[in-house]
Amino acid sequence: MEIHGYTEHGAIDATIDGLRMTVPNDLGNRHRQMIAEWEAEGNTIPAYVPPPVTLPDLAPYQFRAMLTLSGNQADLDAFIAALPEPNKTIAQSKMEYSLTFRRNNDLVMAAQGALGLTEQELDVLWLQASLIL
Description:
Elements: E1 2-6, E2 12-16, E3 19-23, H1 27-40, H2 60-69, H3 73-81, H4 87-97, H5 106-115, H6 119-130
Antiparallel strand pairs: 1-2, 2-3
Helix pairs in contact: 2-6
């Protein structure tokens, strides 16, 4: 094969086996072919997993409004009241004096289970609460 140059569209002007011809320079197909050969060797491309959504911290008024509006305030109060000391005092102090509430806080995650909320249900409530201005 003798390459004479390239056309304005990127095709290869070449002589192959004595015949002069224009050959498409199709890098996209070559790329797909390389991937197919790689996969034929037993390799796999893992499925895309989107990064986890990071939920914002809540201000105390947003957190408390979420509890009341969702009907979970009484259940949370009962959960905290049933905790053994010193966990009960610590949880009560966190509820009364925290300047922010984090979704991944140990108390929030423990209360989630006690309230019978799934991860998705709590995430929805948390996101709704973050929109309260």
